[in-house]
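Lecture notes, structural biology module. Today: joint structure prediction for complexes of four components.
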Amino acid sequence: MCVATSGPGVTNLVTGLVTATSEGDPVLAIGGEVPVHERLKKTHQSLDAISLMKPVTKYSAEVVTANQLGEIMGNAIRVAESGRPGAAFISLPKDIGLADFTGDITHNWGKKLTQGGGAQSEIDVAAALINTSRRPMILLGMQASQTNIAPMLKNFLAKTKIPYTATFQGPGKWAQPADIETFVGRVGLFRNQPADHLLDQSDCIITIGYDHIEYDPSIWNQSNKRNLIVVDVIPADQDNDFVPTAEIVGDIGIILDELVDKLSPQIDNEFSNEVANALVLNKRTVSEGVQFNGSPVHPLRVIHELQKIITPDTHIALDVGSHYIWMNRYYGAEYARQVLVSNGQQTLGVALPWAIAMSLMFPDKRIISVSGDGGFLFSAMELETAKRLGVKFIHIIWDSASYDMVSFQEAAHYDGDTAGVQLGHYDVESYAKTFGCQGYNVKSADEIASVFQKAISCDVPVLINIPIDYSQNMRLMQDVIQSFVN
Amino acid sequence: MCVATSGPGVTNLVTGLVTATSEGDPVLAIGGEVPVHERLKKTHQSLDAISLMKPVTKYSAEVVTANQLGEIMGNAIRVAESGRPGAAFISLPKDIGLADFTGDITHNWGKKLTQGGGAQSEIDVAAALINTSRRPMILLGMQASQTNIAPMLKNFLAKTKIPYTATFQGPGKWAQPADIETFVGRVGLFRNQPADHLLDQSDCIITIGYDHIEYDPSIWNQSNKRNLIVVDVIPADQDNDFVPTAEIVGDIGIILDELVDKLSPQIDNEFSNEVANALVLNKRTVSEGVQFNGSPVHPLRVIHELQKIITPDTHIALDVGSHYIWMNRYYGAEYARQVLVSNGQQTLGVALPWAIAMSLMFPDKRIISVSGDGGFLFSAMELETAKRLGVKFIHIIWDSASYDMVSFQEAAHYDGDTAGVQLGHYDVESYAKTFGCQGYNVKSADEIASVFQKAISCDVPVLINIPIDYSQNMRLMQDVIQSFVN
Amino acid sequence: MCVATSGPGVTNLVTGLVTATSEGDPVLAIGGEVPVHERLKKTHQSLDAISLMKPVTKYSAEVVTANQLGEIMGNAIRVAESGRPGAAFISLPKDIGLADFTGDITHNWGKKLTQGGGAQSEIDVAAALINTSRRPMILLGMQASQTNIAPMLKNFLAKTKIPYTATFQGPGKWAQPADIETFVGRVGLFRNQPADHLLDQSDCIITIGYDHIEYDPSIWNQSNKRNLIVVDVIPADQDNDFVPTAEIVGDIGIILDELVDKLSPQIDNEFSNEVANALVLNKRTVSEGVQFNGSPVHPLRVIHELQKIITPDTHIALDVGSHYIWMNRYYGAEYARQVLVSNGQQTLGVALPWAIAMSLMFPDKRIISVSGDGGFLFSAMELETAKRLGVKFIHIIWDSASYDMVSFQEAAHYDGDTAGVQLGHYDVESYAKTFGCQGYNVKSADEIASVFQKAISCDVPVLINIPIDYSQNMRLMQDVIQSFVN
Amino acid sequence: MCVATSGPGVTNLVTGLVTATSEGDPVLAIGGEVPVHERLKKTHQSLDAISLMKPVTKYSAEVVTANQLGEIMGNAIRVAESGRPGAAFISLPKDIGLADFTGDITHNWGKKLTQGGGAQSEIDVAAALINTSRRPMILLGMQASQTNIAPMLKNFLAKTKIPYTATFQGPGKWAQPADIETFVGRVGLFRNQPADHLLDQSDCIITIGYDHIEYDPSIWNQSNKRNLIVVDVIPADQDNDFVPTAEIVGDIGIILDELVDKLSPQIDNEFSNEVANALVLNKRTVSEGVQFNGSPVHPLRVIHELQKIITPDTHIALDVGSHYIWMNRYYGAEYARQVLVSNGQQTLGVALPWAIAMSLMFPDKRIISVSGDGGFLFSAMELETAKRLGVKFIHIIWDSASYDMVSFQEAAHYDGDTAGVQLGHYDVESYAKTFGCQGYNVKSADEIASVFQKAISCDVPVLINIPIDYSQNMRLMQDVIQSFVN
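The predicted structure, tokenised, for the full assembly:
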């Protein structure tokens, strides 16, 4: 829920709302507008806000008579929260905002849609396909991360023991059965992970709560050659590389319960061995972290140190940049929605505002956010907001003096050349103190642990700058399986 | 499915597509377009067809690369047919239309969404409300007319014995239990029917497959004062006069089966008596028909005569105009989707093209279409199409020498004054023969039966003109209950 | 100016408005709409009319408060008439339509923009280019046909003696100097006319009031290789094949007066000879008309007969189809805007409504409209309107029992194959009489003259059907120069 | 000209582009986009950027084939710069961006429209009205600030000696005749200035290059009661309070030259006295500045100090906030476009980026920007950009620890109550040094002059914080005439 004034107040919402819509997060935004009789005129801050917002929201409506207010508000909230959630925008002209409310507040305004389970016929087809598959894989997407379906998902994964991967927005290792490791790591952006290799080998992929925007089907399901079973809250877009063999639409939790009883999957040995290899590979990479010392600091070492201060109920927000690839790949989440990430629009600057919001919602929990030095500046001024609101969190900046995620991809495409990716130095400790917060400039790897400890005990927001060593970033684009084999 | 050339070919589709979308009829329309590289230029027949079509379709997309064709076609068909059906539009630039198809035709393109049943929690709430209601009523809408759910609907109505009404697009008397009359007539446009009186008295209304466009909630459910249970394929729009107490979304047939087993409705005597009165009132009106003689002919007499030639498998298409109010109210349909009607957009000229389409689909069935003399001219030239295609049907024109449905409402609003509603005379028999078809100009009521018999035996399209007596049209706006009581 | 009810009333306007906008004709259209507080609801005939109309008009606005009415009406009329004219649409919700008018009617509402002349600097560049050119050509477009600039245009052509061609919408032979023939015939659709050959040879083309939609620059100015001088009321769109060397924007009449005094064009002998050849070629083709006899009738014979009854103040409306290519090429107009034609959108069915409108505006003038048998049916029902209004005109149908203009182009592209272009027979005489009008079915060429004479003396609308011989239509696509040379 | 990546790169442009369009500043923005064949898919950073940008730009187009690139770029630049300038947006899909350019670079791509003068008839009407007026006033708007028309404007004002006011975006005192003071101060936002009083008394107002968005006609020309003469580059929107008596559209400079020779205005004594009073009033207010001492500092004292360091060629950028009202009213500019201001959209955060841009364009000139402490944070991170680019400028922050411009208006509306306007403290000196720039926290009025001198000699960007005394802000809304009289 956010409220903004007219004109630039509204246009400044656009990036946030497109991010919410792409990430499936419900948001109600209300923007001011000139009085109704001036809506087509050029007057201070006049704007066709509805047309502007339509491409970036699920619902965009202008209130032009007072008795529409309940209806529009009700529909906006309902649309924002139902199905795959997203942003809704209401344009509120000045005179309507000042008018008396005329609706009936006892109505059940804005009630979220309650969905049932899937169609029996599709469930039966899906069950048959899974039961005859010998190399089944599950791909979990953002809607599988909803907290309320976590029990059904865990039950499903525990009973079927089918290996699973996830997108950057999907559930992580927390969904794993207690008795067997089946989470083979995340996939995303580049098709080079152990889990990608398993998807490639699979004869039947089950996607759960997955949206194309998370990881293009053209990357992981080219030409749609295998059986594809889709479980989701809304119908799937058809795509040359994504046409489901069976499609089960409804409440994901209910569907998983309906489906699990019909399944008795059998996985052949060869595939089980590949799964085991993948698990080994991922662990090997993560375990490298401890060994990296000095300055600048290797990403895996930072993750190694972070693991130590992430408690089972810590909330984490990731910005976008090279750090988010390392983090998504090599940090396995502890519970549903523990890690917030913008992977659909890849919006720079999300981490700090998310950290503030989480601090407001969970004042007693540990809150950690991570960004690059470039992404941090996109919303750095919000530190004033944080301080004024009296919240606390730890924000860690991986400092590469560049927009590194763009830089290493440019270098890969243009024979090592880069352009427009350099970033000037700024003093993070000084920045934090400018706003009455705490800041630390870490010098080398061995300082991290103690700085983290100091940060934990602070009662104001803390910024921590870590000079980062991205010299091994090409690994992010290389085939992990290949590099392992050789 | 329709195909049109670029420019006016596309703009001429607009009225048809908005009608299809408002009436819930699936249509795929493909429009030509200038070559892709000229799409932003002013060149012969260039048009921003996508923006034009967005407001009148469920899906509107332009193919700009050949490999999008399968995807866009698949999504268009899928969207057109799924949920509440409607129109989908594809803009096909000339160069793409001439390019080779590159997609994979083995894909499951365009598969309609298969929905499951409703949410158990909502079903339980609904069942409790219905079981405690003493004056329950059912309002059937357009999606309840789908042929494939007719058995479940009939079962539901038979087992619950709850009285039902329907919109002009909803099911009619065919859905009634065998052992008891529960169809209390249709509602629509004016709130003055016996069924309106029953809705008004009801403490719990169950809408099934109903869309607001069929009959405004502000008319029949003002201020949303009673329990409202909604069964539909898509979530409902919230409205000051329509906020469901329970809302069950999914496949209507499955939901009805899930719900019916939990119901044991009890209707109090007073309400049962009101239902009985309504049934009597409706029959009394219909039975007036036989007595009206001479010329011009009373609408109820025409309906009386029509009843005689409507076999149980006759297909009927209604145009818009005063005739459609009389027909919708006083003709009870025999089976699902027997009568086609445009009541959402109230599009003049639909009857003749529908008759042609039905004749193509059901060449062995009797096809009857009805229009006013004004509405007929909106698509009268399609008689050339009908003749050329070799189809046959009977089209009856209720001739009032005016746009009467506008006329009588103008008169009611402006103390008897009317404007712009006069229509000149044209010779229907001559018109038919101009195109090589058969035509009859009926002179008086007693000729109708024999002319109908002649028409039945024709093997070309037949037009029949009947001079109509609309002097009692004010009855259409008067309160039937009141006029009965007094 | 046209007014329509909501829903289909509005959608039925779309084709007319896109035609007006593409042809530069000012139209104000007012469409009904549901009450303001219901504008976002699905209710009878609700429609997002503004979004629908934006792609086909110059201005589209909804009145949502009563005090906007003067402003919106004023701006709509102003935009429709100013610059290059076109359609404007106003959506008028029912409650606003019933509200009291609150504006000030003494305001100068809707005043058309008064433009000045061109920029001196551009005029000077243009004059220098024309004066140094040796093969200058003028291409006249639709805005050069405006009646009020005819005197300046004639003066310009008389003083410069530069040869000119025109698009189908541009001025014809009436603009020619009294002392020398400089009109070398029209260009359009296919690049094969004598005037096309001259454009091709020209080193400096001056377009006056020309819009790309009339005749694609990619056809007549490929790669923009020569000097191009543009005189128009609005700035030109840039195009790979149309980037002006000098561009003079303002009131065309004033600009022509400003420019003509600076010109002393010199045309070399070779080019003058080519011009002379073109004039001979065109006359030779026209003169063939008299010789074609029998049935079906050759197009040039019909034109030959038409010439005899076209008085200097006759108004003519052409529909779209093969007939309009023959007519545009081989009938030279007598005065500005004598011939109405839809060449931008090529909208079938325009001729009959235009004939009715012209009959209302010029009740004492002779009105002739021409269509094919296919195009006629697109608006044939308007004969009822014509009869009811008491107007008169002569409408001539060139009957080919097909959509011939599509047919001959299909045949040319697909080795003689055609599809979907056949049209059934209908009896035009009978059609006319059905509506109380007069009709004639001409049997052969030698009957035409006498039928035309009978038609002239009728005081009701007259339809005349002429069986047409389109066997030589391939000539329309062949290179006239080539066929002449060989 | 700006370039951004796809997704959030594009959405982050929206606020800047709407500002440019509202302020009449030409901008070409190019945004990245997913490959053409993925444009309708949900894939990383996919966005319907064209629909998004249409409401905030003059031109928005997507390149979908390589040969459109020259055309679209040409039209975008042309539209952005012609008439009233504004923003143009081009969406460049990744595959098109990588394709070879195929256009002809020798074409005259993107040439700005060259306009001529006005229509003689309108000029004559205007001249007659002005010559018979006895209380003429001129209102200068944003297009009158264009540098290239400054000589004609000065000549016009010098010869006619008509008193003039200006919007915040219009020219200031620099346009005054050498021999007589005729600039009576600016008008804007609140109708309470001496110049407002004169407009109110005037019988004939001449607007030059004025757009409604600068200062609503409903404020200064209610009911359109007097003669109104409009000189502008584009036609005016009609408004209940703005319907020109004469409207002259074309190149403003040429029009002023055409008009001035026809004028011999006569101003009556009474009005001349009112003008003299206005001049006295404005000077009296400005002259108060020197007397205010201590801390926090009175706005007029800051302006007094600023005047001392503003050289005749200093460039100034204002942010939005209470400071911009004080500055616009009490600082008279020295030359055309000396002061940049966002008054149409009133976009917070413009000053710092403008200062950077001016520093790049005019590296040898003194650059001063001013913002509030709230507005500064909207773009404060760009100090990193400034430092990296090596530019220098002086940015002055008027520190009120609040969003004061909102605050004092809230207080005025809600009996002294305010909400959501508090801002936390941040240390500006520390902020500047965080980025390697220079910063000063001024403590009291008497420090300002010396700090300004230090700032002038810095070779890095300088931030200066001044605690501001806004206790007299109610004066900004009070009637200056009234307060003077009493």
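Point to remember: The first helix of chain A runs from residue 8 to 11.
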